[in-house]
Amino acid sequence: MREIPSELIAQTVERLFWEANYILPPDMISLLRKGEKEETSPEARAVLESILENAALAAEGEYPLCQDCGMAAVFVDLGQEILITGDSLEAAATEGVRRAYDKGYLRKSIVGEPLFERKNTGDNTPALLRVRIVPGDKIKITAAPKGAGSENMSALTMLSPAAGAGGVEEFVVDTVRKAGPNPCPPIVVGVGVGSNFEGVADLAKRALLRPEGEINPHPQYSALEDRLLHRINGLGIGAAGYGGTVTALGVKVEWAPTHIASLPVAVSICCHANRHSAAVI
Fold it and tell me: Are 135 and 103 members of one domain?
């Protein structure tokens, strides 16, 4: 059994949220440059140029990529041969978020109670913790701050299995169509298919973390991703809603077993930043 102090986890979470808010992932930079070359609309191309310039300035000066520094989602793959000493995993993750948003001058956007008082917690806590138990003696931590502009455009439905792949496609494309310019396109679209009501949303969120260039190993789902990307880019929404040919930079689909009577589908839309940063302890 390998022991890992909770303080090391807190320090790692703190660093990852700084990185995620300041530095656009290299795969997203590559996709934006590709989109800039392919875009046919001068107005939309100018938006893509501005996005790339903003990313360069943020990285050089350690400024946030966006004023909305997001809800602090922490995805953890926890090795089953690990014993966390000190505080709990949840407490460590929340402490890391608190430090990052306080020390990093990142906007605090979380209200403690969602309906009536809606008072800001003042430090962007608590962390939104998602844990999977995996083999081994390591912890992989991924920090994924996600702003409300794109999060509010996400959607979930429980389709009949008879809807099939065509029904899934229609729901995804219609969700993006309704979102329009609100999620700050060009976007990345995470799609979850299967599991159950809460599980499918987790699949869609985790789909956004898959690196560009990592192809879905299932050929039918890989083909579905390609079809969705083609159809979404055919909507003509374009960067910042200015029209054009690049509405989405990528579509990622993750799936899981489900009930014979169900076909859950979730769409997690993310803005062009798709901020995330990961480390293994």
Answer: yes
| Residue 140, amino acid | K
Rg (CA), the chain: 19
Q: Are 155 and 141 in contact (CB under 8 A)?
A: no
Task: Specify whether 125 is located in the same domain as 224.
Answer: no
Dihedral angle computed from the Cα positions of residues 17, 204, 128 and 28, in that order, rounded to the nearest 10 degrees: 10
Give me the phi and psi of 113, to 5 degrees please.
-130, 130
- Residue range 34-85, pLDDT digits in tens: 999 999 999 999 999 999 999 999 988 878 999 999 999 999 999 999 999 9
- Domain boundary (118, 146, 174) is at 146
Measured from the Cβ of residue 27, the count of other Cβ atoms closer than 10 Å reads 17
46 part of a folded domain: no
**237 CB-near residues (< 8 Å, 6+ apart):** 176, 177, 180, 181, 185, 243, 247
Strand segments (E) across 18-127? 71-79, 82-85
The region, left, alpha or beta by phi > 0 then psi within -120 to 50, assigned to residue 182 is: alpha
Contacts of 104 (CB under 8 A, 6+ apart): 17, 18, 21, 22, 64
d(Cα 126, Cα 206) in Å, to the nearest integer? 20
Contact yes or no for 180/240 (Cβ under 8 A):
no
Residues in a beta bridge with 156? 266
Q: What is the mean pLDDT of residues 241-270?
A: 97
- The single-letter DSSP state of residue 270 is E
In a domain, 51, yes or no: no
Query: Does residue 232 surpass a pLDDT of 90?
Result: yes
Contact criterion met (CB below 8 Å) for 252 and 189: yes
Torsion angles phi and psi, residue 47, rounded to 5 = -65, -45
Do 132 and 226 reside in the same domain of the chain?
no
Six-digit token pair at 222? 């890989």
The beta-strand segments (E) located in 1-135 are 2-5, 71-79, 82-85, 128-134
